[in-house]
Amino acid sequence: MAALKVATSSFLVREFTRVELGARSELPKSVRFGGVAKRRCFQGARAQAVAGGQAASASVGAHHHPGKERVDILAEALPFIQRFQGKTDASLKDGVIKDLVLLSCVGLKCVLVHGGGPEINQWLDKVGIKPHFKHGLRVTDAATMEVVEMVLVGKVNKSLVSLINRAGGCAVGMCGKDGKIITARAAEEDLGFVGEITAIDTTVIRGILNDGHLPVIASVAADSEGQAYNINADIAAGEIAASLGAEKLILMTDVQGVMLDHKDSTTLVRDVDIKGIRKLIADGIVSGGMIPKVECCVRSLAQGVHAAHIIDGRAPHSLLLEILTDEGAGTMITG
């Protein structure tokens, strides 16, 4: 089984510490950056064209047959598709949704876990509740939790389900409360109803996947008494991926991935293992809002997920590029 998870990218705030690149030679050998890292068992330029959503640009004049060319490209992508066929993948909006549906149609089992910070803030403003944050976490009192649940479960979740269904998929929307998928408790008393996960039950998810549908899960959970809690979507996705025995955890963000210098895209770290990512944190290269994201990846790897990826959900076809090409689109972290 494999699981590809993607949290809503736009609500995660990123902070980075600028670093100088003169010390590249001091980085562990397990860190590879820039260029094309041949980190996947994937080969073939034509499959890369499929992942990018474009047919190869061969000019053959009047005898050019774009339809046949697209079929040829899909045929050449078959080895990459077969590598993950029947495995579970958990993953965002519109363009990403179409890519997600494509992956589902060719046999990948996908699970989408999402949050929705911007939408929550908009509705809090509408009802006159001022958001408060502590250590980057939303302080969630009873009134705020009511809005959070209504927005994530009633609005964002059903919007994503509609987008998937309109794109040709068959999605089933739910939240962590349904089927006791996520059981939680209070994370910190002064954060209110911000929860930490105490248990995961994937029975309902597996049933939906086995029926050929795509689960869409809002990151709202409950404790044994039924009290609702707001759960970080990345953490929820990582725990669900681990419980499913996922092949992949893919976190969508609003940055390219882990970079040695966040202002220089050529310093993207394409491959790194757990030892390497810990050194990047210790050296201050990974900092701020990226730290909990990579720690989420490390936790999922420690629980059996084969690979964790951090990619930019704003980049066209980043999801397909990460799965179906040699170089990928972001950072892959392995055990």
Automatic annotation (TrEMBL):
Listed pathway(s): Amino-acid biosynthesis; L-arginine biosynthesis; N(2)-acetyl-L-ornithine from L-glutamate: step 2/4
Lineage: superkingdom: Eukaryota
GO molecular function, one term: acetylglutamate kinase activity
Recorded GO CC terms: chloroplast thylakoid
Entry's Gene Ontology BP terms: L-arginine biosynthetic process
Keywords for the protein's UniProt record, in alphabetical order: Amino-acid biosynthesis, Arginine biosynthesis, ATP-binding, Kinase, Nucleotide-binding, Transferase
EC number in record: 2.7.2.8
Gene3D superfamilies: Acetylglutamate kinase-like
SUPFAM superfamilies given in the database record: Carbamate kinase-like
Designated name of the protein: acetylglutamate kinase
Source organism of the structure: Ceratodon purpureus (Fire moss)
